[in-house]
Amino acid sequence: xxxxxxxxxxxxxxxxxxxxxxxxxxxxxxxxxxxxxxxxxxxxxxxxxxxxxxxxxxxxxxxxxxxxxxxxxxxxxxxxxxxxxxxxxxxxxxxxxxxxxxxxxxxxxxxxxxxxxxxxxxxxxxxxxxxxxxxxxxxxxxxxxxxxxxxxxxxxxxxxxxxxxxxxxxxxxxxxxxxxxxxxxxxxxxxxxxxxxxxxxxxxxxxxxxxxxxxxxxxxxxxxxxxxxxxxxxxxxxxxxxxxxxxxxxxxxxxxxxxxxxxxx
Amino acid sequence: xxxxxxxxxxxxxxxxxxxxxxxxxxxxxxxxxxxxxxxxxxxxxxxxxxxxxxxxxxxxxxxxxxxxxxxxxxxxxxxxxxxxxxxxxxxxxxxxxxxxxxxxxxxxxxxxxxxxxxxxxxxxxxxxxxxxxxxxxxxxxxxxxxxxxxxxxxxxxxxxxxxxxxxxxxxxxxxxxxxxxxxxxxxxxxxxxxxxxxxxxxxxxxxxxxxxxxxxxxxxxxxxxxxxxxxxxxxxxxxxxxxxxxxxxxxxxxxxxxxxxxxxxxxxxxxxxxxxxx
Lengths: 265, 278
Prior knowledge:
The structure holds 2 protein chains of 2 kinds.
Chain A: H1 3-28, H2 32-40, H3 42-52, H4 56-76, H5 80-100, H6 103-111, H7 119-148, H8 150-155, H9 160-186, H10 189-201, H11 205-230, H12 236-264
Helix pairs in contact in A: 1-7, 1-9, 1-10, 1-11, 2-4, 2-5, 2-9, 3-4, 3-5, 3-6, 4-9, 6-9, 7-9, 9-12, 10-11, 10-12, 11-12
Chain B: H1 13-19, H2 27-32, E1 35-46, E2 49-60, E3 64-68, H3 75-82, E4 89-94, E5 100-103, H4 117-127, H5 134-142, H6 146-149, H7 158-170, E6 176-180, H8 188-205, E7 208-212, H9 216-222, E8 225-228, E9 235-237, H10 239-242, H11 245-253, H12 259-269
Parallel strand pairs in B: 3-7, 3-8, 5-6, 6-7
Antiparallel strand pairs in B: 1-2, 1-4, 8-9
Helix pairs in contact in B: 5-7
């Protein structure tokens, strides 16, 4: 393995920690649909970057930033209109991105790549990961309050709207870090899947967050190993998602067995 | 009668006279207790609909103020505005050092979260940067058992959940508790316990209580001041002056439907409240 590959793998594993952490809160906030939209909004930015040969991450960051504000505005209104608007934005972003991204770069934009990472890119990613983790730990208690009941949060003196926005930015920063590895289509998958699995396994908040992070790291590690050692034709990003989905499937079986045990007693 | 204070909610002069309100704050009361809250010309509207208009009143420290009135009179809205959660016109001024605790009526909460009561209380303690030892004192204050503390929010009964909410409000040592229909979804035995707890907090710990309640016997029993909110007529005074049959009839007969019926209906509806899910 050369230095670039090591950078890539280390950053991917750290990204998994951040994704599991952010995912546990995103799941509790029930913002899965919104989060999918955010990650897809990176695609037009990636497309522009490939087209005009500038850094894809810079392009993704541009449209992600815009998308985050858009989703926040949409969230503040409620009802069917939000769903409809989010659906429209989501589809439009994907279509625009698909059109402007050069053919040969499309697969990479959609599903990511694990090719060598430069040292500056690695350091930037590292800074991003630590920023995400520090911010979530800083906001953990406030998020917990506003998650359970925005009203009780407000009664405690929290500005719930601003907290929502802060979390959305943390979320999109996480997506941005994962964009390189997982692509616009799958960047949010590693945020969602491990959290969903962890939720099935525990009712304790601290455990839930830890399990979510552990599952996320395990998905990246095994996905990477499988695509490098076992099935070398597999693209790494999708393999990671499949491992993650497989773990979710296992949690279904485990939980059902537990239920059967309880019923038998 | 001389101790009655006047509270305006867009009242016309005739109705004020009908209620025989004396629009003055008695010297006696203001000596008895220092003023904790001053509300002047409060107005709240949602869009074009004015819910509260030109409402003025005061609360002394150590009081137990009960807010009564028919559904839709703006009781909850008033409480939320006192908490600073709603934009309003006019003035709401808490005296310096007032720390508020709020117990909402219905919590639009997410019951499926992997959260224990303990997590919620600790989250508030940490948010307010208070030592976690305070958790113990809050729990003993309301008699919250370790079992309830370690149960997930979705598994708590209505009464247990109400206790958790009160404990939550007490985190940060408030000297004012605002209570919205504290017993709306509870059976009578639990209801009594909650009111005893409230009374204990007010009497023994000197906490000022502002309470929205439909239960007039409770109001009569525990309140030191009663504020009637109703479309068209509003009044305030001690319970034995406000809760007279004549005045109540005037207050509640004004709108065609007496609120009691709706109240009973509410209780049935809330029987399956989300506190019992899972």
